[in-house]
Known about the structure:
This protein is mainly alpha-helical and 426 residues long. Helix content is 71%, strand content 4%.
Amino acid sequence: xxxxxxxxxxxxxxxxxxxxxxxxxxxxxxxxxxxxxxxxxxxxxxxxxxxxxxxxxxxxxxxxxxxxxxxxxxxxxxxxxxxxxxxxxxxxxxxxxxxxxxxxxxxxxxxxxxxxxxxxxxxxxxxxxxxxxxxxxxxxxxxxxxxxxxxxxxxxxxxxxxxxxxxxxxxxxxxxxxxxxxxxxxxxxxxxxxxxxxxxxxxxxxxxxxxxxxxxxxxxxxxxxxxxxxxxxxxxxxxxxxxxxxxxxxxxxxxxxxxxxxxxxxxxxxxxxxxxxxxxxxxxxxxxxxxxxxxxxxxxxxxxxxxxxxxxxxxxxxxxxxxxxxxxxxxxxxxxxxxxxxxxxxxxxxxxxxxxxxxxxxxxxxxxxxxxxxxxxxxxxxxxxxxxxxxxxxxxxxxxxxxxxxxxxxxxxxxxxxxxxxxxxx
Length: 426
């Protein structure tokens, strides 16, 4: 990692540095926008208890809590992406055909996803305006919804600019920047919660607890890095390659321990949050009490349901992306096979068995990491802003690793190109 940082600041990598600076500038604009409250909204009228919307607030850098112009963030686009992916599973024939048309089809699907995301942003903006702002008129709610939709559209444009002119995936980096922006205040709240004052002995004891908290947090970060990087490699042999090719580049199918990333957590949170959102919108007291008693994350039934949904959606989304039958068929068409496994049904069974095992481990790891903040909150007297683990940490680690790989890949490509140029001049 340090070697990569040194290479970035070399004179021949000036263009890459410009890309990094451009990315940081765009993320600064995003953070600046999260502090601008929607015009016409009195901050005193905003509700402070987000409840099930805390995940969206965290991904937006606290923008939803402030009801800023970027309150919705890029979550409507993420939701639209998930919906369009699901509809491609032979549910909407048109989308299924587009998914098989290569780059042209992907471009059309991307356009459809963006339009769907803007529509969802307007709907969510109207609902959030209705839920957050008390005693407003329909025209005011419409105006707030349009401003929030414009904020989401602007963020999507910034994300595209980062992807084209910066480094990494722009949309993912915006989410990561929002989460990272809340971390300094979280550690300050944790310190204030542990070090409550008093005599010298109490102060030293509080500082010790805070240090242990930081060490535990770093340990969880390392565990998440391992969970995000771990993969099971299935060796592949091709009929046109001789067995004497040992020592060359070996082919394999990589199955990540967590192929579904944070999508199952978003699915599970969305499903559990629907009854609470409906209760908040219709202002039904009995339904609100039912949600608080049975579906809240702090209750036993709500927590168990949350964990079960995460595990179930991990399997669902993994098999949505990695289809054993299609993998086996593509492998056979290309003249490949798994050593010791017969092509056809045996290959499908082998891939399914392997996928089931690693997905179970990955789903449990994902459920543990997602459930840690809830368990920590149950046994801790610290503010709700102080958490350990959670979806935010998964996103930050995943995006950081992917961005680092892209930067490293660009450096390797540049070094290879420059070395070839020197050889030719010789």
